[in-house]
Amino acid sequence: MPEWRIDDLPVDYDQATAEQERRADHVANGEADELVWLLEHPPLYTAGVSAKAEYLLQPDRFPVYETRRGGEHTYHGPGQRVGYAILDLNRRGRDVRAHVWRLEEWVIRALAEFNVVGERREGRVGVWVRRTDLGAPEREDKIAAIGVRVRKWVAFHGIAVNLEPDLDHFAGIVPCGITSFGVTSLVDLGVPATMPDLDLALKAAFDQVFSVNNQAVPV
C-alpha cells in the first residue's frame, strides 16, 4: 500500500505541485513508493485544462494557479481536505475512467462514515449530496471535487473534500464549470466532524477501494 503523509500546516500550491511531479517521476521509474498526501492549501483558485476564462468571476480575490490537471476552476482553502493520490496505474490498470471512479468511490465511502450519502451524477465529475434539509428536495450540492493528471501512467492530483471551508469563497468561480448547483460541506450539512475524523475515514475508505489485489470496480 502507498506511503501516507499528513501536513498540519497549509502547503503552498506550487510547492505541492512540484513535489507531486517529482514523486510521480520517481514512482514511474521504480525509485519510490506510491503516496497519499493529505493537506490543506491557503485560499486560492486553480484552473484546469478545460477552464473557461469567463468562469473565473473574481480574478483578483485570491491567487489563481494554472494547472495541467483535468477539469475547470476549483477553490482550495482552509477547512478543505485535499488528498493527492500519486498512484501507479501500470500496476492498478491503465484505465483513467476507472481511476476517477475509484477516487469518487473513496470519497463516497468516507462520507458514509458520517451517515452522509454521496452520489455520482452523469456528466458531473465529483461527489454530490441531496439537500432535503433545506426544504427543497430537488436541490443538489457538491461536497467534493475530483481532478487528475496522468504522466507515464502514474496518476496524481486527486480529491478535495469540503469539511468546513468558507463556502462564500466559492463565489469567485463557477466551480468545475457547473452553474446550476451549489457547494456544501460536512459542517454545513450539520455533521460536527473534525479534520482528524475525516482523515481516519479517508484512510479506511482508501484501503477498501484501492487495495491492489482487490480494487473496487466500476458498476
What's the layout of helices and strands?
Layout lengths: L2 E4 L6 H16 L6 E5 L4 E4 L16 E3 L6 E4 L3 E9 H4 L3 H17 L6 E3 L2 E7 L9 E12 L2 E9 L19 E2 L11 H16 L9
Parallel strand pairs: 1-2, 3-4, 9-11
Antiparallel strand pairs: 2-6, 3-5, 6-10, 7-8, 8-9, 9-10
Helix pairs in contact: 3-4
Brief sketch in words of this structure:
This protein is an alpha/beta fold and 219 residues long. It is built from four helices and eleven strands. The chain has helices spanning 13-28, 89-92, 96-112, 195-210, and strands at 3-6, 35-39, 44-47, 64-66, 73-76, 80-88, 119-121, 124-130, 140-151, 154-162, 182-183.
Main beta sheet: strand number and arrangement?
A: 8 strands, mixed
So what's the oligomer here? single chain
- Supply Rg: 16 Å
Distance between the termini: 24 Å
Strand proportion, as a percent range, falls in 25-35%
Shape: globular
The unreliable regions are none
Structural class computed from helices and strand pairing: alpha/beta
Helix tally equals: 4
List the secondary-structure elements in sequence, H or E.
EHEEEEEHHEEEEEH
Number of strands: 11
Helix content: 10-25%
